[in-house]
Design brief:
With 462 residues, the chain is α/β, with parallel strands linked by helices. It folds into three domains: 286 residues, Ribonuclease H-like superfamily/Ribonuclease H (Nucleotidyltransferase, domain 5, 2-Layer Sandwich); 87 residues, R3H-like domain (Ribosomal Protein S8, Chain: A, domain 1), CATH 3.30.1370; 33 residues, no CATH class. It contains 15 helices and 14 strands. The strands form four sheets. Strands 1, 2, 3, 4, 8, 9 and 10 form a seven-stranded mixed β-sheet that branches. α6 crosses α7. The longest helix has 23 residues. It is elongated. The two termini are 57 Å apart. The C terminus is likely disordered. Pfam families: CAF1. One of its GO terms (molecular function) is RNA binding. InterPro entries: CAF1_poly(A)_ribonucleases (IPR051181), PARN_R3H (IPR034042), R3H_dom_sf (IPR036867), RNase_CAF1 (IPR006941), RNaseH-like_sf (IPR012337), RNaseH_sf (IPR036397).
Length: 462
């Protein structure tokens, strides 16, 4: 697979967008700075409750690597081909995030390059952050730097020496060959004094209020007239828009996938989808129903291979649904994965030759292979030239919900199923070694039910 960092992202981006637009479907997989794991989940969670738990996790941990694998049928080769990409992703700015020692150690043991992540990770902004930056640039471009509206103010005695030194510095600057002069950092009041003084005494220079230096704004003196000032501001404005475009970064890839409306395939993909929405689209909504609506608009057709393998007709014939074992089962009778090659002059994986599980691009590749294995079984054909969405309609837009007693999926386009607990006829038989074991089981029962409704057969082993 091709590794993509901020060093080669600009040149690779057009190739990725082209691959997305030409694909029959796109497989995705993410790696994270940490995972809370299934122990935080309640066996009796409703989908809305589970979503809120996952939403909290997405705001704490980072998505640090994204694997994208584009599959298409090649008419000339008469087979399915793919191209795979590994994107190292790291946010720009002053934000903080959580990391989990076990997760980082696990990734490192599978060859994850953290130096590459921190040094060359691709930046990103979601739509809300991008819009805020756009408004800031627009306001800046329309503002006046003169800061001298209203009548002049008298220079207080305590600032007269300072203003004298500023004037002396500007006069020395005017007879020098320097193009600009950075003044000492100071407060807003003194900056106003400088503005009014420069306007009166030095018509051949203009002032620029630069960004921030050590959290303090700095005035810069430039030689030239008002036209020169306008040209400088125009160049600076263009630079700010260019910088924003670069900071949007990897979000452009997700935007291209969303715009393409192509089938997006993942495996146990709830975390992948939630992180993608939160990082590259907009912050995850607080309410579950709003999340479903937002997801439908962003990715109208998604498929979770773990869901597909867990539903009829496969739930009775597929014994394991974790990705490596699912791939192993689908790669032999009575199933079979179609012949898949690497697209011409592209990067990818050779089936059964490059086992690199837990590398995002490889996991996305294997996810795509599993989907093709299941799809070819449904289609009763190993020759796949296109994806018939009607054939897989019963599996689309249903995300697997792990560690759940009754409901095992999130139904994105329809109302979720209901959990019916009939405790008048249900007995829970457990053997507890101690009271702690008993409490661990009981804590997973729905809190809304009264304790008297539980019918238990408890046998304590002494």
């Amino acid at each position: 697979a091709m590794e993509v960092t901020k060093d080669n992202f600009k040149e690779v981006l057009p190739l990725v967008i082209q691959a997305i637009n030409q694909s029959n479907f796109i497989a995705i997989d993410g790696e994270f700075s940490g995972l809370r794991g299934t122990k935080q989940f309640n066996l009796f969670d409703y989908p809305s409750e589970r979503y809120k738990r996952v939403r909290e996790e997405c705001t704490d941990f980072l998505l640090i690597q994204m694997g994208i694998c584009c599959f298409k049928y090649d008419i000339c080769l008469r087979k399915v081909v793919h191209e795979a990409y590994d994107f190292y992703i790291f946010p720009n700015g002053e934000g903080s995030f959580l990391s989990q020692a076990s997760s980082l150690s696990f990734l490192a043991s599978h060859g994850f390059d953290f130096n590459k992540l921190f040094k060359s990770g691709i930046t990103y902004l979601n739509n809300v952050e991008e819009l805020e930056r756009q408004k800031h640039i627009q306001a800046w471009s329309q503002s006046s730097d003169s800061n001298n509206e209203g009548r002049d103010i008298d220079i207080p005695d305590q600032w007269k020496d300072h203003m004298s030194s500023v004037c002396q510095a500007i006069e020395e600057f005017l007879i020098s060959d320097e193009e600009s002069l950075k003044l000492e950092k100071t407060n807003a009041f003194v900056r106003r004094l400088i503005y009014q003084t420069v306007k009166k005494k030095y018509p051949t220079v203009f002032l620029e209020l630069s960004g921030k230096e050590n959290n303090d704004k700095v005035l810069v003196v430039h030689k030239g007239n008002e036209m020169d000032k306008a040209l400088l501001k125009q160049r600076q404005c263009e630079e700010k828009w260019k910088e924003l475009d670069e900071d949007v970064g990897f979000s452009k890839v997700i935007s291209a996938i969303a715009t393409s409306k192509k089938l997006v395939v993942g495996h146990n993909m709830l975390l992948d989808i939630c992180h993608m929405m939160n990082c590259f689209h907009k912050p995850l909504p607080a309410e579950y129903e709003d999340f479903k609506k937002e997801l439908q608009q962003l990715f109208p057709c998604i498929l979770d291979t773990k869901t597909m393998a867990s539903l009829a007709p496969y739930k009775d014939v597929i014994n394991f649904t974790d990705l490596p074992k699912l791939y192993e089962q689908l790669n032999k009778e009575p199933f079979g994965i179609p012949n898949i090659d690497i697209a011409s002059q592209k990067s990818g994986y050779q089936v059964d030759c490059d086992s690199q599980f837990h590398k995002a691009s490889y996991d996305s590749f294997i996810t795509g292979c599993c989907f093709l294995g299941l799809y070819s079984d449904l289609a009763k054909s190993k020759s796949i030239t296109t994806i018939d969405l009607d054939l897989i309609k019963r599996y689309t837009n249903k995300i697997f919900m792990s560690r759940s007693i009754d409901i095992n999926l999130f139904n994105i386009v329809k109302e979720d199923g209901s959990i019916i607990f009939d405790f008048s006829v249900t007995h829970v038989g457990c053997h507890f070694r101690d009271s702690r074991s008993q409490s661990r089981v009981l804590r997973d029962f729905p809190g809304k039910l009264e304790m008297r409704k539980y019918i238990q057969i408890v046998s304590t082993i002494r």
